[in-house]
Design brief:
The complex is a heterotrimer.
Chain A (H helix, E strand, L loop, with lengths): L25 E5 L5 E6 L3 H20 L2 H17 L1 H12 L3 H21 L3 H5 L1 E2 L6 E9 L2 E5 L7 H12 L3 E5 L6 H12 L7 E4 L3 H10 L5 E3 L8 H9 L4 E3 L12 H5 L2 E9 L4
Parallel strand pairs in A: 5-6, 5-8, 6-7, 8-9
Antiparallel strand pairs in A: 1-2, 3-4, 4-10
Chain B lengths: L20 E2 L1 E3 L2 E3 L6 E4 L6 E5 L4 H19 L4 H17 L1 H12 L3 H22 L13 E2 L2 E5 L5 H15 L2 E5 L6 H12 L7 E3 L4 H8 L6 E5 L2 H10 L6 E5 L5 E4 L5 H13 L11 E5 L3 H12 L20 H16 L3 E4 L14 E4 L6 H4 L6 E7 L2 H9 L6 E5 L3 H10 L4 E4 L18 E2 L4 H6 L2 E2 L18 H9 L20
Parallel strand pairs in B: 1-5, 7-8, 7-10, 8-9, 10-11, 12-13, 12-17, 13-16, 15-16, 17-18
Antiparallel strand pairs in B: 2-3, 4-5, 6-20, 11-19, 14-15
Helix pairs in contact in B: 2-4, 2-5, 3-4, 4-5, 9-10
Chain C lengths: L5 H12 L5 H8 L7 H11 L6 H13 L1 E4 L7 H12 L13 E5 L3 H8 L12 E5 L10 H13 L4 E5 L2 H5 L3 H14 L9 E5 L2 H4 L2 H13 L4 E3 L11 H18 L4 E3 L7 H14 L12 E3 L2 H14 L12
Parallel strand pairs in C: 1-2, 1-8, 2-3, 3-4, 4-5, 5-6, 6-7
The chains are: A alpha/beta, B alpha/beta, C alpha/beta.
Chain lengths: 286, 523, 335
């Protein structure tokens, strides 16, 4: 006789904790072949608000950590993910209806993208910043700094690799993120949150919301304490309205991307959530 | 006679040969506009300078079409080397006509000739020289090999540095291979039109640079034009916000240089005489019509009284008057509208309980003027401590510790610039790190250089102008295969399932082109 | 022009310093003064240099420059004849134009003082009264490398010979070695040596030799030190070291003088010396004085130019303004 399985409750991930939605709502997540998988939390605007508060509170510490440290923390995510590879493969296989090999490829790619971005943490400023040869007795240097709180609508047609590809670049430079997971495939995102919670990522640096992006995204787009909005996975939403809402506080906006190449690893995804700061100082021997 | 009442030393206007009226510069020629023409006046005397054409939507169409043709047929096909040579030509022509441009700028804008002559125009030439050299080196711009121009750039600039803002916009755009349609501010079109003559002298291919004049509706039509690929705007946060909404949902790439409320932080160990000069330069340069002006003086409480006393003494030596007099320090306010706004905010400061002090200046009878003014006893919640005044008005606040200075400096939706004055190097670097501002001047203020990126955090806008970063704002990577990206392994998406799901959803909204938006004057 | 009382100076220094003027106390005080940002200072000076002084202002400025000049000869080859020639030029700078003002003083080596006094005759006196003073460089000028006794003897002899003003040099070596107390004491002692038997004193100009102090922070500290020790004037340079007077250095010294006046009410003079040859440059100094300390400083007991060739350039400019055409070198006298 086979053993009766113990199913997991999938909750939100806010400020390092795993709360249920304050609204008490959940929605059914079903596998590719229609079987019930779980009741995921259906986040409300108040959950989004709490997530932004948690993210804002985490920015100073994460941005203020040394780049070397951030790189190690991001690399550790890859290490932990590798250790739980089988769990993610099984989850994706079931959720997306992929073969084991296909699901495995997705997990491997997600892990490798963490590694790629982790390596950028202490190099990005060297590539994106520079000394400026101004015509005068000044020391002048430009450096990239994190924009602040980045709200992300993760790619909707992928469980893990899209989610990872959306959040990793924002984390490299020191932003904190509030990410709305794929509505159909939210479970890997929450499982990844469990990885983050047990890795060295400080509380509040990554906050994961599951539920309806169409419901949550407008609150994030219009939230004055959100600094930037990544609409990579918002192609099926009324994203133009989101971009318009974001303009009220002049948020930096990345527009939707479609297809398997969405949020593909790129230096400009890191740059998109940074601000260039230029510092001048006089110099003289006298 | 007192020596300090220096005898008049007016710069001659003879160098300037103005036309009675100016048309739009489209496709290499001056043409009539189809809107109702308007007058450009001297804000120092309210005298009429010239009649200026007003571009309507059809004129905007023509200008964008000319830019598109020039881009597709000429400019995008030209070698970077030759584009660069055109820009070098322009730089030289600006140097040759520098005095004329300075006089025109001071006449039209009201800024002191010493500033237009020693700051604005030399920087304009420097900007073209700098970006000229980039034109054949785009592979090194940081976007990977063979980056592409975006296409047609719509550029709307403000009235505070008319020609300099033109240079900030046009030089990088052309170097990167874009063609441009530029709209100068309604109150300061003159130097842009003289620049059009320079473009002719340089024999730049027709349509590469188009200059259309008009008010806010012209700017909105240009920004909203469907065949524009890039929008660059410098001006108020309110208009910037409207533009961000207008271009939402389009493919247009946008850079915005908007307002500011910069903190100028003076610690008790600052080089005091230079700090006083820096404070003065920070807020009274160009009558305070500077988006990065140091309008909030944050002074350590222990030296507050001394700093204010020294400031008042120093301000009493500033000379307000004829912008064309070589000894004028403070010129005219650019327009009656702006003067009204300065007065309104300044009165609000008094009403909120702050103490106003104005330098004892004789105010000329005609024209628009505002004496250099300091507010003390200002609270962080006062309007004069939060809103951009864009005039010669300084609000003085105090702090006790570096942490408090940083917190107060950052406590604003703006984030364009900041200043730090202290002799302690480690403090400068640490404070600079924590200030949320795009440009931080330490022991100096209001310095600009074409190689140095400039632009804001938060509601001061996005994108950078100047330097390599400013060039990148007019370029796209060669292809969708972006720079520095590893080859991802093939990842199967749940394609069948997602396709089915997508069918149930409303059609995705894609590229939206024009959306009419009513705007105020762009500035 | 006469110097201020030493007793008052010492008392004032003690009050300001809050203790004896020894190395430690002076170091605490001088290093507690706000630093100078060189770039900002030079920019401010350059900005003042862009003032455009035209027509009536220029005419006034040229005459005022002449009346502020210490017409100087400090050569090993100086002779009584050379000094007499210099004095003649000082009394009547432009023989063709009687409206030309006299210079403020002639500045010579101590042993030449009797010849200068003799040549001046009844014109010898206070430049504030339209007369001409005799200034003598002293204290082992220009290096200052000798014993205090010799410096004092040098000073006393010049005063005894009729010098109205003593231009002393500070011991730059001692200053750079941090021996501020020693520099203070020497200035105070020289000040004492400026005293005449009748109780009056020659005015004391303290030469900092800014070209050897190099940094602006040093110039600012040396300025404060010299004023604290009783100097009536602070002077940039001997003229024997490059760079001599510069506009930023002079601006900095004027800022010290302004701050001292704010603190004590006492007005100290400033004398840029060496390297100012053109009227155009001299006018920049006038502007800098007027806009930094106020134009009441533009009188002989508060501001001087240490110069020789400057005078002829001013005369050429003056002739141009009077006649409307450019003049030439042969229309002004060589001495």
């Amino acid at each position: 006789m086979s053993r009766l399985a113990v199913p997991k409750t999938y909750k939100l991930f806010i400020g390092g904790a795993f709360p249920r939605s304050e609204s008490g709502r959940t929605y059914e997540v079903r596998s590719a072949d229609g079987a019930f998988l779980a009741n995921a939390a259906k986040a409300s605007r108040k959950d989004a608000r709490d997530a932004v508060v948690a993210a804002r509170g985490a920015v100073a510490g994460w941005a203020g950590a040394t780049a070397y440290n951030r790189g190690q923390v991001l690399y550790r995510i890859a290490e932990l993910l590798e250790g739980r590879r089988a769990q993610f493969v099984a989850e994706i296989e079931e959720a997306e209806g992929l073969t084991r090999a296909q699901a495995g490829a997705q997990v491997d790619e997600a892990i490798d993208r963490w590694v790629w971005y982790a390596g950028w943490a202490d190099k990005f400023a060297q590539v994106a910043g520079n000394a400026n040869p101004v015509a005068g007795p000044y020391f002048n240097i430009s450096v990239p700094e994190p924009t602040g709180v980045v709200a992300i609508v993760a790619p909707q047609d992928s469980s893990l690799v899209g989610f990872v590809s959306a959040i990793a670049p924002a984390l490299v430079a020191g932003n904190a993120v509030v990410v709305v997971a794929s509505e159909r495939f939210p479970l890997s995102a929450i499982s990844l949150a469990e990885v983050l919670a047990t890795s060295d990522v400080p509380k509040g640096v990554v906050n994961v919301l599951t539920g309806a992006p169409a419901e949550i995204a407008p609150w994030l787009a219009s939230h004055a304490d959100v600094s930037a909005l990544d609409l990579v996975g918002a192609g099926d939403l009324d994203w133009v309205d989101l971009e318009i809402a974001a303009a009220d506080t002049l948020k930096r906006v990345l527009r939707p991307e479609q297809g398997p190449d969405a949020a593909a690893p790129a230096l400009d995804r890191i740059a998109a959530f940074t601000e260039t700061k230029t510092v001048w100082h006089t110099k003289s021997l006298r | 006679m007192s020596f300090l009442e220096y005898a008049p030393a007016p710069e001659s206007r003879a160098i300037l040969s103005l036309r009675d009226s100016y048309g739009l510069f489209i496709d290499g020629e001056f043409v009539d506009g189809r809107g109702t023409p308007f007058q450009s006046i001297s804000p120092a005397s309210e005298e009429k300078i010239a009649t200026i054409a007003n571009a309507n939507a059809a004129d905007v169409d023509d200008a964008v079409a000319a830019a598109r043709r020039a881009h597709d047929r000429v400019w995008s096909r030209m070698s970077g080397r030759d584009r660069g040579k055109y820009l070098f030509r322009i730089a030289r022509l600006i140097q040759e006509r520098a005095r004329e441009l300075a006089v025109a700028e001071s006449l039209d804008n009201g800024k002191p000739i010493k500033e237009s002559r020693d700051v604005d125009v030399p920087l304009v030439a420097a900007w073209f020289f700098y970006y000229a050299g980039w034109a054949d080196k785009l592979d090194y711009a940081g976007l990977g090999a063979s980056p592409k121009a975006l296409g047609v750039a719509a550029q709307v600039i403000p009235w505070n540095f008319p020609l300099l803002m033109l240079a900030w916009k046009i030089a990088p755009a052309l170097a990167a291979g874009n063609t441009v349609v530029l709209k100068p501010a309604e109150t300061t079109p003159l130097t842009a039109l003289i620049f059009a003559e320079i473009v002719q002298q340089a024999d730049l291919p027709p349509g590469v640079v188009n200059i259309i004049t008009g008010a806010g509706d012209t700017g909105a039509a240009l920004v909203g034009h469907g065949d524009v690929d890039k929008v660059a705007f410098t001006g108020s946060t309110a208009v910037g916000r409207a533009i961000a909404k207008q271009v939402a949902g389009t493919h247009k790439k946008v850079t915005l240089e908007l307002g500011g409320k910069a903190a100028n932080i003076v610690f008790d160990d600052a080089p005091i005489d230079q700090a006083i000069e820096g404070i003065v330069n920070g807020i009274f340069f160009n009558q305070g019509h500077v988006c990065c002006a140091g309008s909030r003086l944050l002074v350590q409480e222990s030296i507050h009284d001394e700093v204010v006393e020294r400031l008042k003494t120093r301000l009493s030596t500033l000379r307000l008057g004829d912008p064309l007099d070589k000894n004028t320090d403070i010129g005219a306010i650019n327009s009656r509208e702006q003067l009204d706004r300065i007065r309104e905010l300044s009165d609000a400061g008094v009403a909120e309980g702050a103490d106003r002090w104005s330098a004892p200046c004789e105010i000329p009878e005609n024209g628009f003027w505002y004496a250099p003014t300091i507010f003390t006893n200002v609270q962080t919640s006062n309007r004069i401590a939060r809103e951009e005044i864009f005039g010669p008005v300084l609000s003085v606040l105090t702090f006790r510790t570096p942490q408090e200075a940083i917190a107060k400096a950052n406590n604003t939706p703006y984030g364009l610039s900041a200043g730090i004055w202290t002799d302690k190097g480690s403090r400068i670097l640490a404070v600079a790190d924590q200030l949320r501002a795009g440009v931080v001047w330490a022991n100096t203020f209001n310095r600009f250089d074409p190689s140095s990126p400039f632009g804001g955090y938060k509601e001061s806008g996005y994108g950078r102008e100047g330097g390599r970063h400013g060039l990148g704002a007019y370029l796209a990577p060669a292809s969708v295969t972006r720079a520095g990206r590893p080859a991802p392994r093939a990842v199967e998406a749940a394609s069948a399932a997602s396709a089915a799901a997508a069918d149930e959803k409303p059609a995705r909204r894609t590229r939206r082109t024009t959306k009419p938006a009513k705007k105020g004057a762009a500035k | 022009m006469s110097g201020t009382s030493l007793v008052t100076a010492r008392e004032r220094a003690l009050a300001v310093l809050g203790g004896e003027p020894d190395d430690a106390t002076l170091r605490r005080y001088l290093h507690g003064i706000a630093g100078v940002d060189a770039v900002g200072l030079e920019q401010r000076a350059a900005g003042l240099g862009t003032r455009s002084i035209k027509t009536s202002s220029k005419k006034w400025a040229l005459d005022r420059i002449i009346s502020l000049v210490d017409l100087t000869t400090l050569e090993g080859a100086d002779t009584p004849g050379k000094v007499r020639s210099l004095v003649a030029k000082a009394m009547n700078p432009d023989p063709a134009d009687a409206t030309t003002p006299r210079v403020a003083a002639v500045c010579v080596y101590g042993d030449m003082v009797p010849y200068a006094v003799d040549a001046l005759g009844s014109v010898h006196g206070d430049p504030d009264d339209g007369l001409i003073s005799v200034a003598a460089v002293a204290t082992a000028f220009p290096s200052g490398r000798s014993s205090l006794e010799i410096k004092l003897a040098d000073t006393a002899e010049a005063v005894a010979n009729g010098a109205d003003e003593i231009d002393m040099v500070i011991d730059r070596g001692a200053f750079l070695a941090g021996r501020y107390g020693l520099v203070f004491d020497q200035i105070a002692a020289v000040k004492e040596a400026c005293r005449r038997p009748d109780g009056t004193s020659a005015s004391l100009k303290v030469i900092l030799e800014t070209g050897e102090l190099v940094t602006y922070d040093n110039v600012r500290r040396a300025s404060w030190l010299s004023i604290l020790a009783g100097g009536d004037f602070i002077k940039t340079s001997t003229g024997k070291v490059q760079p001599a007077a510069t506009l930023p250095v002079t601006l900095l010294m004027l800022e010290v003088v302004r701050d001292w006046h704010l603190m004590t009410g006492q007005r100290i003079g400033v004398k840029p010396a060496g390297g100012i040859r053109a009227s155009k440059d001299a006018i920049k100094y006038l502007v800098t004085v007027a806009e930094t300390v106020g134009e009441e400083w533009l009188q002989p007991h508060l501001f001087r130019f240490g110069a020789s060739s400057l005078l002829n350039d001013v005369l050429l400019q003056r002739q141009k303004m009077a006649s409307g055409h450019y003049s030439g070198a042969d229309y002004v006298t060589i001495d």
